[in-house]
Amino acid sequence: MSNLKCWAIVPAAGSGSRFGGTTPKQYIDLEGIPIIVRAVNALIKVEEISGIAVGISPDDKWWAKCAINDRRVIGAFLGGACRAETVLRGLEYLESSASADDWVLVHDAARPCIRIEDIKRVIAMRSNGSGGALLGTPISETVKYANQDNLVEKTIPRSNLWLAQTPQIFPYRLLYDALVKSDLETVTDESSAIEAIGYRPYVIHGDSFNIKITTNRDLKIASLIMQYQSASHLA
Q1: Beta bridge mates, 33
Q2: Domain span at 200
């Protein structure tokens, strides 16, 4: 285990259409720094990560302007039409650097509030087996299942339900094989692809502040979180 490296992929090829505007959400400023820069800088602070690759869209004109000067940001690669395809292309981009048994950590470009300690906790789970691990938070509210007419059909027990977050970490070859076998358009996170081939990733209790920025409202919430983390030295 000690000889195996950990690589990071940051999928950032999406247009962020739900956010609105002409600039993809990952490049919007959050407290003066682009969202994606904050996410990548968090990974840079984790010494266990050997290299970071960022997946961008073919028409991206913003990444080159991001001032990230660290040797472990090994470059950007062209992403795909969906998140899972971008991650798969990231694995192909890392092929010449990563061994089959190395580990790959995937983190959303739109999760800038991730705590360094939580990234380290995910990486530490490499010793708990080959199924990988992910951050998540238990669902605390009552969950309803409604039909297409918004009529409630049943209440779902919440005791074992989690909201998945990133980062998520898996062995390089296992994740590659899982994605190759998947319908990439239906894969919403790496764990679901791993689960589909029979593995059971370990979910680690994360922080509710590790939000994914999707709307302008989320950006305002993230700004408050960043201010709190800065004042509390939690970032």
Answers
A1: 30
A2: 6-232
